Amino acid sequence: MDILNDLLGGFAAAMTWQNLIFAFLGCLLGTIIGVLPGIGPVAGVALLIPLTMNLDATGAIIMLCAIFYGTAYGGTITSVLLNTPGEAASAITTIDGYAMTKIGRAGAALTIAAVGSFVGGTIATLGLVAAAKPLGELGLLVGPPEFFALMVVGISLLVALAGRSMVKALISGALGLLISMVGIDPVAGAPRFTFGMDRLLDGVSFVAVIVGVFGLSEILSYRKDPHAATVHAPGLRSLLPSRTEWRRSAPSMARGTGIGFGLGLIPGMTGSVSSLLAYGAEKKFSRHRNELGKGAVEGVAGPETANNAHANAALIPLFTLGIPASPTIAVLMGAFLQQGLTPGPTLFTENSEIAWAIIASLFIGNLLLLLLNVPLVGLWTSILRVPASILTALILLFMVIGAYTINFSVFDVFVMIGFGLLGLALRHLQIPLAPMVLTLVLGPLMERSLRESLEISQGDFGIFVNRPISMVLIGIGVLIIFSPLLKLRKPKALDEDPET
Amino acid sequence: MTRTRIAAAFAAAALVALTGCGANAGTATTAGDDFPKKGKSIDLIVSFSSGGAVDTAARLVQPILEKELGTNVEVINKPGAGGQIGYTQLTSAKPDGYTIGATGSPSVVVSPLDPARGAKYTRASFQPLGRQVIDPAVIAVQPDSPYKSLKELLDAAKAQPKSMTASTTGLQTGEHFALAQIQETTGAEFAPVHFSEGASQATTAFLGKHVDILVANVSDVNDLTKQGKARVLGIMTAERSPSLPDVPTFKESGYDVEAGTARGYSAPAGLPDAVAKKLEAAIQKAIEDPAVVQKMNDLGLQTSYLSGGDYETFWAGQEEDFKKVLPLVQKKD
């Protein structure tokens, strides 16, 4: 009951008309910034922090949280409509999001994404209210060996993303791992595969690779089939998801919430891991898994829900332990510090009113985002009324600007073009692209946790099976890898579709 | 009436004279007198992950730098390889004042010393602009650990070398050097685990009890001790820290070990004088700002400002010290 009282107190403090205006402005500005290519939540929040400097602590944090939600959703809009992800976490949404756009379901995709974000975010925030402390401790159970084991589970989902040929999926996955090796060795500090180029010391930019491999290569492949470029602008009626689409998204949202929430609790996990694994889970477990990649609503609902559940769950380690679990949260933490608030358990004892007002504002922010964006879906999708030839040119322009704005460097534009050509070659060879993205994201995290684990065990690989959590996780990974051989699923589903 | 009018006239005349002076001083220098250009933002590169001590300090001085310089200052995190990624980016940037960075020792001092790391910079690649803090190293155990004093812990580690794991924030970082210095002076050897993503990852692993010993700076453990989640057994400075008054120094316990981190701000070498002067002044203002000093105190960090020139001398002295213990922290496998 105490919690309920505190929370209601928080709502009372957060619901002043000034704070609501801040939250509204934050969502709006965030969405606009997020739509700009290349600017994801981290840069978006950092960019807009000065706007909040003169507000009181509650107002400032409320506005920043709203900006944070807004930028995340803005990135989704370009992923779905223009095949250009605004940030890493919505990269995987391009696959089915853009496919939905091509069959005239852009409005439905955007609405589902907004609703999924709302559901994931709200449930994660409820978790923060109900059980922040034990959940925070739960995240700590994941040490380097468990982290590595989780990555094994993640990589094992490669089987689900494989498509027709396992060998081709492995080629794609190995390529992703290879690309993820580029840059300075995170442990020993030696440069790897940089060919003496300083620009490569940081590795290749993930967003540039994604935009190239998915977006650019798709446009380049239109040359073969000019009709493929045609997208159908949705009519007014088809802006909203159909009843079937709603029904099909519900289980995906549930899975997405679970994955995003669980991974969000783990310090060091990024939101893009959540959305990727959620997509992998849809590929593996969804009833309509055969349609994924061709504009299935599950491919939008799962990752987008996971993404937002992750973002909100990542606040739990911040509130309970004072640990920023992801780069975006770290930017928020900086804003806390500038307001004289030290995030962590002491926040609830020393500044309890502000702490609860912030939590209340997370609910408000999630709701506002939904209320703001669903009516705007019609506006965003009207972009698609632009004739295909012009729209394609516009998308190309958007991609170049997007690659450039990641680091304001032309080098990334070349990276994007290079990977566009690579993507075209892979498409031509019918090598699936999703496994490459998966390993590209998971590779560095996997390497880091592997090396940390082996330092803890001083070289003994037994550490991965001697610890119960890690053993179970690795077991799950192995099971997923061998599941196609064991035919755990109904074999009929496999035969239905030539893609599988 | 007349008197106020005269006063006003004087004030106006003085103002004109002052602005005149300013204009003259401006034209006297050649490059960089229009620095910073309006609307062109300055990148402040932090070579460690966000949320750590370096990042927090940078984010605290950032708004004051913005006010002093009249333009946006953006904190950019480039973590990895014990700071080397960020330092490389900093030193390869154009020395025009629009790229500055947080520099911390030992990372910035050590990375160019070991040829195996292939660092593309040396001390001469940096132009120090000002030192902000010295953050002493501490050693802490789990709250339920059987070791209640530094001597008990070190004796146990001496009896069974490498039986306990200890966190560092990466190969050849301050924490790794501190472990090497402990080994050199006392003979106690821990198994280092390098968390290359920085202090928050190391702390997380310690809180989850995945490592036995937390080697960190005072600022990292300040809040942890308040929450009772870590028991700090010793601090590696000459004097006790005001934020951890109950923790004995290594010297008090009979071990001659001093280690820690010093942090400041630098630019790539070769800044035009006028730009360097403006940046140095703004950085001094930001570091010594009472609100910043207070917030740094709250985080367990004692401000100890040094000008650009003095910071450079200090840097050179540290380089000499580290050369001596370097073999102990080099990767042998």
- Tally the helices of chain A: 23
Summed over residues and divided by their number, the pLDDT of chain B gives a mean of: 82
Domain count of chain A: the total is: 1
Largest contact between protein chains?
A: A-B, 48 and 57 residues
Order of helices and strands of chain A: HHHHHHHHHEEHHHHHHHHHHHHHH
Instruction: Please state the CA-atom Rg of chain B, rounded to the nearest Å.
Output: 23 Å
User: Low-confidence runs of chain B (pLDDT<50, min 5 residues)?
Assistant: 13-29
CATH superfamily of the largest domain in chain B: Bordetella uptake gene, domain 1
Biggest sheet record of chain A: 2 strands, antiparallel
Provide the fold topology.
The complex is a heterodimer of chains A (500) and B (333).
Chain A: H1 2-14, H2 17-35, H3 41-52, H4 57-82, H5 93-102, H6 106-140, H7 144-156, H8 158-161, H9 166-181, E1 183-184, E2 191-192, H10 206-221, H11 243-264, H12 271-285, H13 298-313, H14 315-321, H15 327-338, H16 345-350, H17 352-381, H18 388-407, H19 410-428, H20 434-456, H21 463-466, H22 468-486, H23 491-496
Antiparallel strand pairs in A: 1-2
Helix pairs in contact in A: 1-17, 2-4, 2-17, 3-4, 3-15, 4-5, 4-6, 4-15, 4-17, 5-6, 5-13, 6-11, 6-13, 6-14, 6-17, 7-20, 7-22, 9-20, 10-18, 10-19, 11-12, 11-13, 12-13, 12-20, 18-19
Chain B: H1 2-28, E1 42-46, H2 53-69, E2 73-77, H3 84-91, E3 99-105, H4 107-110, E4 126-141, H5 150-159, E5 165-168, H6 174-186, E6 191-194, H7 199-207, E7 213-217, H8 218-226, E8 231-235, E9 260-268, H9 273-288, H10 290-298, E10 302-307, H11 308-329
Parallel strand pairs in B: 1-2, 1-3, 5-6, 5-7
Antiparallel strand pairs in B: 3-9, 4-7, 4-8, 4-9, 4-10
Helix pairs in contact in B: 2-9, 6-11
